[in-house]
Amino acid sequence: MNRALILGGIADASLLAAAIARAGIDAVYSYGGRTRAPADQPLPIRIGGFGGVSGLSDYIRGEGITHVIDATHPFAAEMSRHAVDACTETGTPLLALERAPWTRAPGDTWIEVADVNAAVAALPEAPAKVFLAIGRQHIAPFAAKPQHAYTLRFVDPPEAALPFPADVIVSRGPFTFDGELQMMRTRGIAWIVARNSGGDGARAKIDAARMLGLPVIMIARPRLPERLRVESVAEVMQWLGHRTCLGA
C-alpha cells in the first residue's frame, strides 16, 4: 500500500490533494506553518517544520511514507534540499511538482537578477512607488532604500513591526488581471519586484505590469539538486500508479 507525503506550498498542491483523495490513496498533506490560516485539504494535515533532514527522515520512517511529492513554493529551497537528502537517506522515491518559470513576453520590461540583494541594488535611487510581491520573509533588505514608498501584500496581517513604513494589503490569491491593474493604478505603482514563481495563480501582476509598461525586477529561482520533476497533477498521479480525471 502506498502512503504519500505531500510537501505543500503551491496552488497545484491542493489540486493534487483532491486528486489523491478521489483516488483513495493514503496520504498526508504537510504545511510549513508560515500561514496562520492555511486552506483546508481533503487529506489529513500536519503543520510545521520537520526539524531538518534528520527530522524528515524520522517522519518518513515512522509514518511509513512510501512516496514524497515536493509541491512547495519554487523559492522554498531549504525544504526542497531537505527532501532530496531525506529521501536519499531513507530510499524513498521523490517527485517534484514544479510549475514552469515565467518567460519574458513581448512588451515585458524585465530586469533579471539572481537574488533579493541584487533586486534592492536594481531599484532606482530616486524615490518611487514600489510593489514588493515577494513574501514577508524577504523584505528586510529593502530597508537599505527607505526613500521608496513600498506596497506589500501578505496572506496574514503582519504580527511584528515592519523594517520600513509600507502600505500593506492583506489578501489571498489567486489574483485577477483586472484586480492587479486597478491596484497598481490606484496606488501609482512605478516598479514591481517579483520572484519568478511561475504558474497562473500569481501571473496576473506580470501581465498587468506589461499592460502598464512598468519595469519588473524579476528574481531568479534558487538552484536546487537534481531530482525527478513534473509540471502537472496528472503526471504525479501516473507516477503514483493511478489515473485521474481533473474535471471530476
Brief digest:
The chain has about 250 residues and is α/β, with parallel strands linked by helices. It has seven helices and twelve strands. The protein folds into two domains: about 5-100 and about 225-240, NAD(P)-binding Rossmann-like Domain (Rossmann fold, 3-Layer(aba) Sandwich), CATH 3.40.50; about 110-220, NAD(P)-binding Rossmann-like Domain (Rossmann fold), CATH 3.40.50.
Structural overview:
- It is a single chain.
- The protein is an alpha/beta fold and 248 residues long.
- It folds into two domains: 4-100 and 223-240, Rossmann fold (3-Layer(aba) Sandwich); 110-219, Rossmann fold.
- The protein is 29% helix and 22% strand.
- The protein contains seven helices and twelve strands.
- It has helices at 11-23, 52-62, 77-90, 116-122, 177-187, 204-212, 233-239, and strands at 3-7, 26-31, 45-47, 67-70, 94-97, 109-113, 129-133, 149-154, 166-170, 191-195, 215-219, 229-230.
- Helix 1 (11-23) packs across helix 7, helix 2 packs across helix 3 and helix 5 packs across helix 6 (204-212).
- It is elongated.
Q: Topology, please?
A:
Elements: E1 3-7, H1 11-23, E2 26-31, E3 45-47, H2 52-62, E4 67-70, H3 77-90, E5 94-97, E6 109-113, H4 116-122, E7 129-133, E8 149-154, E9 166-170, H5 177-187, E10 191-195, H6 204-212, E11 215-219, E12 229-230, H7 233-239
Parallel strand pairs: 1-2, 1-4, 2-3, 4-5, 5-12, 6-11, 7-8, 7-10, 8-9, 10-11
Helix pairs in contact: 1-7, 2-3, 5-6
